[in-house]
Each structure stands twice: as structure tokens, then as C-alpha cells.
Prior knowledge:
40% of the residues lie in helices and 16% in strands. It is an alpha/beta fold. A seven-stranded parallel beta sheet has the order 3-2-1-4-5-6-7. Helix 8 packs across helix 10. The protein starts with 5 loop residues before the first helix and ends with a helix.
Amino acid sequence: MIYVNQQQKNRCFLVATHFFLYFCRKETRAMRILIVNTSEQTGGAAVAAGRLREALSNNGVKAKMLVRDKETDNLSVVGLRCKWLTRWKFLWERWRIFMHLHLSRQHLFDIDIANTGTDITRLPEFREADVIHLHWINQGMLSLSDIARILDSGKPVVWTMHDIWPAVGICHLTLGCECFKSACKQCKYLPNGGSTNDLAAKTWHRKQRLYQQGDLTFVACSKWLAGEAKKSMLLKDKTVRTIPNPIDTRIFKKNDKQRARERLGLPQDRRLILFVSQRVNNVNKGMSYLIEACNAMLGKHPELKEKTAIVVLGGHADELEGQFAIPLYPIGYVSDTANIIDVYNAADVFVMPSLSENLPNTIMEAMACGVPCVGFNIGGIPEEIDHLRNGYIARYRDADDLSEGIFHVLFNADYDELSHQSIAKVHAAYSQQSVALRYIDIYTEALARKNYNL
Length: 454
């Protein structure tokens, strides 16, 4: 075929893509997707990847999940074999980072260099797949060389970004650094601020060569993260789309509050403020701001001491004893979904004072259970919480405004309307079907490019 110009070539591809999408829509049952993530269940990315696998399966796609850490007997999830070898690779990467940190444990798990991993291209699950869908693949799951082999296979690759790491050198949080807009160097995570040719710079250039190697479609879970990723020189020629994480609204839903509290042993006569984190002592999750906000609320309204209480779900929750001016109910770490749903339903407000977030699953889960949310104006949080409609967006790092938000939800607003709007938002934006169909479109477009050889 002879093209008059690039515009005509692009027009022909668009026409071919529309035809391909039309026929693939009818044949989605034949599509096979391999979702790759480090863990099956641990962490927000694992939860999101697992929910997407289920959403795709419920919409006619044959989806499997490949993980380093398999934690259930789900037949649709495949774990890497040879556990001792994957463990050794994890430790080897940490050791290399430890050396670059001059034997300091600070930031040991804040950065990743993807220097070691597993070649998954030899696995039958890989060979059977039409599209390879990467998620969070750090800590010894895939190396940059392994990703290069995946690209060399010719299979379309979609990469969902759960943080900024794919668009920068080595970090998962930029902490205000803007070097990634041109090229990572002098990394603040490294001793003495790094150098112009430090570990971040070297990893950046490895990614730059990698991304020039094949067809990659990036997906960000929030508009905020997509905006940040598009600023990166690494992704200047790459497609970056925005699709939120899905949630099963048949499971996460509003239930009887009194019964939920009975099962958890929580008081019936208090307004309960909920905080959830895998590790509640993670500084980035902002527990200090919640403590300050609650104590400030009690300072202005001392009568609330007998009317409110704090519920904390997550590891190290018991360490907070005595830091709040109101009763604390530490639940600890819970992995059972039914218990987690009870915790949400028992609460009156969910507070997320995180200092950096993408699109938190926890806000989505709380809202699906009819619980209004309060959070800082950062990351993807304002995309989930519509200010004064289904919750409250507080000024960033402002404990007093966070306090106002909690008080507004519990005592000033039309609570039933906030609860209703929370559920409506989740059903409209984050349902399994809506998210699955958007990903199916991306898969079929990627397959169209492959078949059309653009």
C-alpha cells in the first residue's frame, strides 16, 4: 500500500482499528490476557490487579494472573516456581540498593532498580496470552532485562502504573523532585543527594533504551498520575491513558451498621471515625495529622468526647494507645474481606490524611459501603471525593481543615445524602463492567497495531 502522507497513513490505521474493534468486541471470549504483579493479595496494586482479573473474566475475557507471591488456591492465579530462587533475587536487589545507600536502611524499600527478576517468556501462561498486562512488578518480580524480553516477543504490552516508578529512575514517590521531566540524577533518596551519574541516572537511561524497544501502552489509575507521567521525558512518545481501578459493588456494599458493630465489638452509641492502612505507622499515611485533627475537634467541641471514637484497621494499630483524646479501637491487620466490609459498614466517616496517593482502593471501598470520606487535596483523592457532595476535601497538610471536614460529615451535613452520593459515585465510575470494557478497548487497539504493523 502506498501512502500519500503520514496523515493519510494514520487515517487508514484508524479505519482499520475501528473494524478490528468491531470484530474483537464480538470475539472477546477468545482474548487471553496475562496480568503480571509481584503479589497476589498484599498491597493496593495487588488488590487492584486481582479485581481487574475478576472483572475481565466476568466480561468474557480469559484472564490469568502471574505473581511472585501466590497466597490463595485460586486456579486463575499462577505463582512463580522455585521459591528459594525468587527470594534470593529479592535479597540480591535489596543488597545492591543497600550498598548504594552506604549500608543505611533509610530508603531501603523506597526505591527499586529492577536489576534482577524472572524471565517469564518461557512460561506456558505467557505463550498462551494475546496481551501481557504489567502492574506492580518490583522487588525481584521482573527486571528491566525481563521486560525487554517481553517486548522482544512481539506481544502487545500494557503497563498499569500504580505509582510513578515506570516514569522515573528509581523512586515510587518523587517528593517534589522534578528531575524526571528531563532526566533523573542527583537523587534525594541517595546519600549526599546523589550525583549526575548516580544510580537513579543509570536506571533512567536503562529505561529510556527499554522504552524505545517496543510498543508499550501505559495506563494510570488516576488523572493526577497520568498528568505526572506525561511530564516525564521517558514517556514523551508513549501513550498514557487513564482508567481507574475496579471494585465489585456486589461485595462492597452498604449493610446493617448495628450488626456490623456487634460482630466487631464496637460501641453502638458513638460516631466512629475510621482510619485504614496496611501499616498505620507509615509516615506517608498521615496518622499524625489525624491525631492532631481529632484532638483539635475535641478542643473546639469538648462534648464530643462522649459521642465519638476512633477505629484503626491495620498493622501496629495498638501502638496508638493514648495518643487520641477519644477512645481508640485498634482492630489490627485484617485480610478477610467479610471482616473488612464489616469495618467499613461500622464506621460513620472514613478519613485518609495521606501525604501522597494515587487512587486509593480504601476510599473506593468505604464509599461503596455508603461511608462518606475525608482526605487531603493530593493525588487522585479529589477524583474520588467530590467536595461537600459525598465527603470533604481538606487543604493539604492542614490538620485544622481536616478537623473541619470530619465535623462537617458527622454533625453538619445531610448524612444520608452524603452516603447515597458516595454509593452512586462508585457505581458510576468504578464498577467492574465499566472498567473492564475500557481495558478491553485498550487491548484490542494494541492488537490492532500489532496486526496492522503501524
